[in-house]
């Protein structure tokens, strides 16, 4: 199989055979096309630079898509149940990093919305990241120029804050991490 259809239920073995970039969430295939916009890539680049600068001496690694994150019910990652490609992933355990990606929940995941991914990022990925213990999840909304920051507390995401473009993002997980938003949504 080179390409899944929208009606099938798939497993990791199927995902391995697909051409192109795909995510597998709850047995459903999600195509990672079309290519992101220039604003999307600019935002990812700015956030990557800020995160890389912050984490450079803290034993955490910042990865940019395409970078596969594998989630597994059994914690056996040779046959994971889900495969996603977050825009940015912060992994703070060397044991999770493999040549193919990350096994288990990164400490922090950031998704930058696009019209084709917004529902998936707010629903399927939100639930998946919550279930598998991603401690902090940021959803960047370029259309509304906001950033939603969710923090895991007692196994559930609680809304920490909705940051607007005039504010500075403040992480709950990393209290010293703050990123001003004033230039994030504007390509200069």
Describe the model.
The protein has 4 helices and 14 strands. The chain is α+β, with helices and mostly antiparallel strands. The radius of gyration is 16 Å and the shape is globular. The termini are far apart. The model has no long low-confidence stretch (mean pLDDT 92).
Contiguous runs where pLDDT drops below 50 for at least 5 residues: none
**Main β-sheet, spatial strand arrangement:** 3-6-9-10-11-12
The CATH top-level class label: Alpha Beta
Number of strands: 14
Estimated helix fraction? 10-25%
Tell me the quaternary state. Answer: single chain
Structural class: alpha+beta
What is the fold's blueprint, element by element?
Blueprint: H1 12-15, E1 22-25, E2 28-31, H2 38-55, E3 61-64, E4 68-71, E5 82-84, E6 88-91, E7 97-98, E8 101-103, E9 108-112, H3 118-122, H4 124-132, E10 136-141, E11 146-153, E12 156-164, E13 168-170, E14 178-180
Parallel strand pairs: 4-8, 9-10
Antiparallel strand pairs: 1-2, 3-6, 4-5, 6-9, 7-8, 10-11, 11-12, 13-14
What are the key terms here?
188 residues; globular; single chain; alpha+beta; 19% helix; 6-stranded mixed β-sheet; 33% strand
């Amino acid at each position: 199989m080179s390409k899944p259809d929208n009606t099938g239920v798939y497993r990791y073995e199927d995902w391995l055979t697909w051409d192109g970039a795909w995510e597998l969430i709850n047995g459903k295939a999600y195509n990672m096309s079309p290519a992101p916009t220039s604003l999307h890539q600019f935002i990812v680049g700015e956030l990557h630079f800020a995160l890389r600068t912050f984490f450079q001496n803290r034993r955490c690694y910042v990865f940019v898509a395409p970078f596969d994150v594998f989630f597994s019910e059994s914690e056996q990652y040779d046959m994971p149940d889900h495969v996603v490609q977050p825009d940015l992933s912060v992994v703070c355990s060397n044991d999770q990093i493999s040549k193919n990606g990350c096994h288990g929940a990164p400490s922090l995941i950031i998704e930058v919305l696009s019209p084709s991914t917004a529902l998936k990022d707010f629903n399927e990925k939100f639930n998946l990241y919550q279930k598998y213990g991603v401690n902090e999840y940021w959803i960047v909304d370029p259309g509304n120029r906001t950033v939603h920051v969710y923090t895991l507390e007692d196994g559930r995401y609680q809304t920490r804050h909705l940051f607007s473009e005039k504010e500075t993002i403040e992480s709950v997980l990393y209290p010293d991490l703050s990123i001003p938003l004033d230039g994030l949504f504007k390509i200069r």
